[in-house]
Write a structure and sequence with these properties.
By secondary structure, the chain is an alpha/beta fold. Helix content is 26%, strand content 28%. Bound molecules: flavin-adenine dinucleotide.
Length: 449
């Protein structure tokens, strides 16, 4: 019986194993997972910590019975430590006993996801220091909040997990401080939208320390007390580090599997690595950016699920492609939603484009219809009129607007086409000129000049 071995049992790994078993029931599928949990939605962790979702159990994507029904064998607390490519085997450490053993494969799927990038700062430790990368992190954080009842939280980072946790810590009654060494918020948010987010955070009582260098971690008796920064000492009851991730591929160093400089696995559109029998999917991989045509590392759940499915299909002998991403992401900070897709002007310039940009503010609903509020839309295009990216920020409707822009980018749409797109209009959802159409019209006007 041919055997698929999967490294990592989350979105990408379980999608691939499920797909393969559906298409080729004669194959064996074994998943080796280093952690104690399997197949849950990590994206929901902030909302369990904040009390919106009642329990971590609600995050389970697949129950054990369903996994068994699909005929997938799962082994938890098994870490792959070495690829023995010539022998079509991997070396696996049983994390309970520390013993290692070899496992053979006919096809290998690497879906080992991402690992945290932590600041290199001496003394950064304590029972009140947290990260939020997986379920054990979430459980530890929730237990601490419930037992210690911290009154203040300091979040190091300004990415989407940091913003989501600012809201969720505040929901648990904590005074929140956000710090970051740069002025960046999210990946590439442009100034007007970034300022709007920062204003929202400040209005909700979040203290902001951007362009702040952390110099020292100050602790005592196993607890972190404060961070000494170039803008003074910042004390808190709880500290969360959310400074980013990198591909979790250390065990592949020195193997023939092609890695980018940051360690991300290079795959083609079929999720093949180019090494016979070895496939890869999800947060451990680079993907193609459909606007630039170049490889990028944008680790997100939606990509991991799709790549897993494509890999599973192709391992089964199918011919499916994962073309790439346009870098679409959305999040919420208190009452404000924000979405980004494609390139901002800085990235566009770095990619060799000569970008033009425009931003506008328009109502999210018809002016006479109560509720809603101002929506900021920023668009980037090249001088010949091709749309390169968009960003949206407002109290509602962001998901629909950013998804529209993602579709427009994927189709290589021009700004003038976007300006005349047949978008839905009804007073509770949009003004007759949707903010996207207004922004496209303004940018078109600039390009026509
Ligand atoms: C708090 C939080 C919020 C998020 N919110 C969103 C969101 O709103 N939208 C979105 O699109 N994405 C979001 N994400 C990202 C999303 O969760 C990931 O993109 C997705 O989980 C990636 O799936 P994956 O299968 O590639 O990798 P992972 O989910 O990282 O799974 C990889 C698994 O491999 C295991 N593993 C690693 N190395 C080994 C090894 N050597 N041997 C055996 N097992 C190994 C790990 O233990 C892990 O369980 C969020 C993530 C977090 C943490």
């Amino acid at each position: 019986m041919p055997r698929l071995l999967v490294i990592g049992g989350m979105a990408a790994g379980m999608s691939a194993a499920s797909k393969l078993r559906r298409l080729r029931p004669e194959w064996e599928a074994t998943v080796l997972e280093a952690g104690p949990d399997l197949s849950y939605g990590a994206c929901g962790l902030p909302y369990v910590v904040g009390g919106i979702t009642p329990s971590f159990d609600d995050l389970n994507a697949l129950e054990p019975e369903e996994i068994a029904r699909r005929g997938i064998e799962v082994r938890l607390r098994q870490r792959v430590v070495e690829l023995m490519e010539g022998k079509k085997r991997v070396r696996v450490e049983d994390l309970a006993s520390g013993r290692t053993a070899e496992e053979s494969y006919d096809a290998l799927l690497v879906s080992s996801g991402s690992a945290l990038v932590l600041p290199d700062l001496r003394g950064l430790e304590g029972d009140n220091l947290f990260t939020l990368h997986d379920l054990p992190d979430g459980r530890r954080l929730s237990t601490f909040i419930e037992t210690v009842r911290p009154r203040s939280a300091l979040i190091w980072g300004t990415g989407y997990i940091a913003l989501e946790m600012a809201e969720n810590f505040a929901a648990r009654g904590m005074a929140v401080t956000l710090i970051n060494r740069s002025t960046r918020v999210l990946r590439n948010l442009v100034e007007p939208l970034r300022d709007r987010i920062l204003r929202e955070l400040e209005e909700r009582g979040v203290r902001l320390f951007l362009e702040t260098q952390v110099l020292e971690a100050l602790g005592a008796n196993g607890r972190l007390l404060a961070l000494r920064t170039d803008r003074g000492e910042l004390a808190a009851d709880l500290f969360l580090i959310a400074t980013g991730v990198r591909p979790a591929t250390d065990f592949l160093r020195g193997s023939p599997v092609p890695l980018a400089r940051n360690g991300a696995i290079r795959v083609d559109e079929t999720c093949a690595t180019g090494v016979h029998g070895i496939w890869a999917a999800g947060d451990c991989c680079e993907v193609r950016h459909l606007v630039t045509g170049r490889p990028v590392y944008i680790p997100l759940g939606t990509t991991a699920n799709k790549m897993g499915r494509v890999a599973g299909t192709n391992i089964a002998g199918g011919r499916e492609r994962f073309p790439g991403v346009v870098g679409t992401a959305a999040t919420r900070a208190f009452g404000l939603e924000v979405g980004v897709t494609g390139l901002g002007p800085v990235e566009a310039r770095e990619a060799g484009f000569d970008p033009a940009e425009a931003w506008i503010e328009a109502g999210s609903r018809a002016g006479y219809y109560p509720g809603g509020g101002g929506v900021l839309v920023h668009l980037t295009a090249d001088r010949r009129g091709r749309l390169l990216g968009g960003q949206v920020c407002g109290p509602e409707g962001t998901k629909g607007r950013i998804d529209t822009l993602a579709a427009a980018l994927t189709c290589g749409m021009k700004v003038e086409e976007l300006a005349m797109l047949d978008l839905a209009y009804a007073p509770p959802f949009a003004p007759v000129w949707d903010p996207l159409l207004v922004a496209a019209g303004v940018l078109k006007g600039q390009l026509d000049r």
